[in-house]
Design a protein that fits this description.
heterodimer, A: 319 residues, Rossmann fold, 4-stranded parallel beta sheet, 15 helices, 47% helix, B: 322 residues, alpha/beta, Nucleotidyltransferase, domain 5, 5-stranded mixed beta sheet, 9 helices, 13 strands
């Protein structure tokens, strides 16, 4: 089915084609860019919306037990979209910059989803592989051009304007984020798809805001700041997201209004196991008095244990 | 009439109640097995208190433990606090300059670090309950040794054998192997105590420096075998407070007193008579949206007293008819 669709000229005009964007994983970082990209290509864009219990349950039942919770949730999102869209778009994030790699699960995400959904979904993909420059990434736009019947140059130009340049801008903007206010703050660290997913994060950010804390995340800092604060390693982290979080942690240490840091991690995340260890060592070595807590979450929906730790952590800060 | 304060700790394994007086002295403590029925255990405890203490005036009540929310709905509480805070308040009352608190309960274990009387770090066990009280309970039961005697057995051992402590399932099979190859019960039990201590220190303390005075509390603190294994491993003396098994409840009582002194409001405690009411809980899976929240409803004599567990507030707001 996929093979046929890839080569056949579309029967519909592009405005009739609905492209599904799973509101999960890197959607939290670049969702708007991809939405803009497909709108400009003339497609109708449909998002799967916030993770619900139903999406989570569906994802868990579709995936093997070995993969991490975010991948299960992502599969649930794709499954929800598969029924109501013509194509589901899954960018294959391989590398976001020179000498940086993304988690192997990102690199294989479209394949994993295809297998877990038994090929019952039409996927559109693009390879984001900036380690080797931009050529490979641009070449991978060919399949989108074929699928939508839009000539390659047009697709490429829209990609450059809607996505690539915006990613570049993020890397180049100035050093201080103007949005950070001078009030008691908690830094929430972790992958964007963990900390911004209300279901997976058990509402961590809203719970902190309710307690009148300003919540800072790696997104509160520019990429430039995140990268320039990577002294913990002699070298940078192999994984892009890892470098982001590590750099953010050390940048937050310099902000006097940050009263504590909470690291939210999905059970069995390989990147997090290294990053949290290095943050803890850094805190220990520099003798900074920064309260730091790692919370590991998995499938459990009982929030009692989570709330206990959060409450105790905030009590400790307010003491 | 003298004011008294009530602290309630509803944990996974035990439900503890403590009554303190104006001088923070414990005048009565009750330690009950929760047996999976927290409401029954709690109301039973309240009835015992009424029978033994008569009609005393409770001026403040606090709840803690994993069932603290449920307990506050059943008994009525002025303050609902997490276990970490409750335990550290109680320990500081006994040893003001305490630096490390180790607590091993039924399914939870925690370590709390303090500096200048302020909590500066803490850790709780994650998804795994290996190395907690219920695991020891289970092994004691399997070996048909009363859990109270477990510690004595360990101390009699001369050559402890090594037991894998990473996981309760592996530990159990390891113990069975050792037993079948002829190791004595004493040596196996001491090996188990040492494995539990190793596991606790590597999972919770994670190489952080443990400074004395160290307090050891929670139900497992009664086990002299574990206490000895900790002292041997750390080279520090472990202080086991007199009310080691109800420290959470003691902390809740102290917190309640502080709270009512501050707010000067009458207590939210429903009174001991309330324990004779009929309590009923049920869970409802809401089908209002795709979140499928599990809502808990508590009824007292047939009337809804509280609901929680919903994300949108449709159920927990009692003034709205559902």
């Amino acid at each position: 089915m996929n093979q046929i669709l890839k080569h056949a000229k579309p029967q519909k005009s592009n405005s009739d084609i609905t492209v599904g964007l799973p509101s999960s994983m890197m959607f939290y970082a670049h969702g708007e860019l991809w939405e803009d990209f497909f709108s400009k290509l003339g497609c109708h864009v449909e998002k799967s919306g916030p993770t619900s219990r139903e999406i989570l349950n569906r994802g868990v039942s579709l995936c093997s037990s070995e993969v991490c919770m975010p991948v299960k949730v992502f599969t649930g999102h794709v499954d929800a979209l598969a029924k109501r869209t013509d194509y589901v778009f899954i960018p294959r994030y391989i590398s976001m910059g020179r000498h940086e790699m993304d988690c192997p699960k990102f690199c294989g995400l479209p394949d994993m989803v295809r297998i877990n959904l038994h090929n019952k979904v039409n996927l559109m993909e693009v390879d984001i592989d900036f380690d080797k420059g931009t050529e490979k990434t641009k070449a991978s736009l060919g399949s989108i051009s074929n699928t939508l019947g839009i000539d390659y140059e047009t697709v490429k130009n829209i990609f450059v304007n809607s996505v690539q340049n915006k990613l570049d801008t993020d890397m180049k903007v100035g050093s201080v984020e103007p949005g950070i206010k001078n009030m008691p703050s908690i830094a929430v660290l972790g992958h964007p798809y963990m900390i911004y997913d209300e279901m997976l994060s058990m509402g961590l950010i809203s719970k902190l805001k309710q307690k009148n804390f300003q919540v800072l995340t790696p997104n509160s800092l520019t990429r430039n700041v995140r990268r320039s604060h990577l002294p913990i390693f002699k070298n940078r982290n192999f994984y892009e997201l890892g470098s982001d979080i590590l750099g953010s942690a050390s940048a937050f240490l310099e902000l006097p209004q940050v009263k504590g840091m909470i690291y939210l991690s999905p059970f069995a995340c390989g990147i997090d196991s290294l990053v949290t260890e290095f943050i803890e060592r850094h805190l220990h070595n520099t003798e900074k008095n920064m309260p730091f807590m790692k919370i590991t979450v998995d499938e459990h929906t009982g929030e009692a244990g989570f709330d206990t730790r959060l409450e105790a952590f905030l009590d400790m800060i307010e003491d | 009439m003298n004011p008294y304060y009530l602290g309630i700790d509803v944990g996974s394994v035990s439900t503890d109640l403590v009554v303190t007086d104006e001088n923070d002295t414990v005048i009565k403590k009750i330690y009950l097995r929760t047996c999976g029925k927290p409401i029954a255990a709690l109301t039973h405890g309240l009835r015992i208190l009424r029978d033994e203490l008569g009609d005393i005036q409770i001026s403040g009540a606090g709840t803690t433990g994993s069932g603290r929310q449920l307990a506050s709905v059943i008994a009525g509480a002025d303050i609902v606090k997490n276990e970490i805070t409750a335990h550290s308040i109680a320990s500081k009352k006994i040893i003001p300059d305490v630096r490390t608190i180790m607590e091993i309960g039924g399914q939870d274990s925690k370590i709390i670090f303090l500096k200048n009387g302020v909590v500066c770090d803490f850790a709780m066990n994650t998804v795994c309950a290996a190395g907690t009280g219920s695991f020891l309970d289970r092994q004691a039961e399997r070996m048909e040794i009363p859990i109270e005697k477990f510690g004595e057995y360990a101390l009699r051992s001369k050559n402890p054998t090594r037991i894998a402590g990473r996981c309760a399932v592996f530990a159990e099979s390891d113990m069975i192997h050792k037993q079948q190859t002829g190791h004595s019960e004493e040596d196996i039990i001491r090996g188990l105590c040492e494995a539990l201590v190793r596991n606790y220190l590597s999972n919770l303390a994670k190489g952080k420096e443990i400074v004395g005075p160290v307090m050891f509390q929670g139900g497992v603190a009664a086990n002299i075998g574990i206490k000895a294994a900790f002292e041997h491993e750390l080279g520090l003396k472990m202080y086991v407070p007199e009310y080691y098994d109800v420290m959470g409840a003691y902390g809740a009582a102290l917190l309640a007193k502080k709270k009512v002194k501050k707010t000067c409001k009458p207590t939210a405690f429903y009174g001991f008579e309330n324990a004779f009411n009929e309590f009923e809980t049920r869970s409802i899976e809401c089908d209002g949206c795709s979140n499928q929240c599990e809502v808990i409803e508590v009824r007292v004599n047939g009337e809804v007293r509280a609901r929680w567990g919903d994300k949108c507030g449709k159920w927990s707001n009692l003034s709205v008819a559902v």
